[in-house]
From TrEMBL:
InterPro entries: AAA+_ATPase (IPR003593), ABC_SmlMolc_Importer (IPR050093), ABC_transporter-like_ATP-bd (IPR003439), ABC_transporter-like_CS (IPR017871), Mo/tungstate-bd_C_term_dom (IPR008995), P-loop_NTPase (IPR027417), Transp-assoc_OB_typ2 (IPR013611). Residues 4-234 form the ABC transporter domain. This is ABC transporter ATP-binding protein. Coiled coil: none annotated.
Length: 348
């Protein structure tokens, strides 16, 4: 189990700065997910690790060894492509064996390692089939087996579940995480799906504009986002401009904060608001929209701000949502759950 370290990696295409001073550490055997919107640089960073892209500055190190100048075939990393990239004219076993065959490993070793790799992904009985005879989920497992058969130090996966339907995608996410835990391989996973990142990751690197804005465990990212962009991208968030004076926000419910006096941004997750009918101490407003989602009810409440505040509450058995137009007050369930960040802009 080898550590992977990215040190100040940067890449520019003409006038477009794609990566800027990216730093990342993945401990041996862990899964780090690169998460962000399209065009944020996550695939370029992944391809830089693989050696498919040559960065302008920075280093890539595996197990303490600088591999930045090595060609892809000497980096001891394996890449699982978004479209699987299986050879249609080769059987499953031949596809999995391809990398070992190119490296001219002995036939007996190839057969043994292919059997082991197919066993890891629960496809031991499928070696004689062709890709067109396999489902999307099975083809994805073949692609993973083809990567694992090389016994790499680092496994790289570029949005491998995009082509799968929602139910199969969830199943494959869980199965991949179990597989990685079982074999203990350091893995870097690229996705734009925050739920996928939460399921798979030991750490999440949230990327924006070619930079890593925050690197932390998934729940730490959710509970303590370091920027408004991270708060808005991971889960849902109410992002409000506030003023800080004497260690508290100047809001209907003051929130203690170490921020200096002046403008700031307060972030409140929808589940940290509760709706109180009528007048009380809090944010007065009016129900603009309500959605019953089985166990929860979600509200959009007009409190006289540019954007409605969003609230998510548990639904009492047999109860329905409050009617549109109902006057209510929003209160914080816990001031500890409100995050106050520096700066005066509420929008990201």
């Amino acid at each position: 189990m080898s550590d992977l370290e990215i040190d100040r990696l940067s890449k520019r295409y003409g006038k477009l700065q794609v990566l800027t001073d990216c730093n990342l550490m993945a401990e041996g055997g862990s899964v780090v997910t690169l998460l962000g919107p399209s065009g944020c640089g996550k695939t370029t960073l992944l391809r830089s690790i693989a050696g498919f892209v040559e960065p302008d500055a920075g280093r890539v190190m595996v197990g303490g060894r600088d591999i930045s100048m090595l060609p892809p075939n000497r980096r001891d990393v394996a890449y699982v492509f978004q479209n699987y990239a299986l050879f249609p004219h080769l059987t499953v076993a031949q596809n999995v064996a391809y990398g070992l065959t190119v490296r001219r490993r002995p036939r007996a070793e190839i057969a043994r390692r292919v059997d082991e790799a197919l066993g890891l992904v629960a496809l031991s009985d499928f070696g004689g089939r062709y890709p067109k005879q396999m489902s999307g989920g099975q083809q994805q497992r073949v692609a993973i087996a083809r990567a694992l058969v090389l016994e790499p130090q680092v496994l790289l996966l570029d949005e491998p579940f995009n082509a799968l339907d929602a139910q199969l995608r969830l199943t494959m996410q869980v199965e991949l995480r179990k597989l990685i835990d079982r074999i203990g391989i350091t893995s870097i996973f690229v996705t734009h799906d925050q739920a996928e990142a939460m399921i798979l990751s030991d750490k999440v690197a949230v990327m924006h504009g070619g930079r890593i804005e925050q690197l932390a465990p998934p729940l730490a990212i959710y509970d303590q986002p370091s920027t408004p962009f991270v708060a808005d991208f991971i889960g849902r968030a109410n992002i409000m401009p506030v003023q800080v004076r004497a260690g508290h926000t100047q809001t209907p419910q003051p929130v203690p904060t170490p921020r200096p006096d002046g403008p700031a941004v307060m972030i409140v997750r929808p589940e940290n608001f509760e709706v109180v009918p009528g007048t009380a101490t809090g944010w007065p407003g009016r129900i603009g929209f309500a959605t019953a989602l089985g166990a929860t009810i979600e509200y959009e409440v007009d409190c006289g701000m540019p954007d409605a505040l969003r609230v998510s509450m548990a639904r009492a058995p047999g109860a329905g949502p409050l009617a549109q137009g109902t006057d209510v007050t929003l209160r914080l369930r816990s001031t500890d759950g409100a995050i106050v960040l520096a700066g005066g802009a509420a929008h990201v």
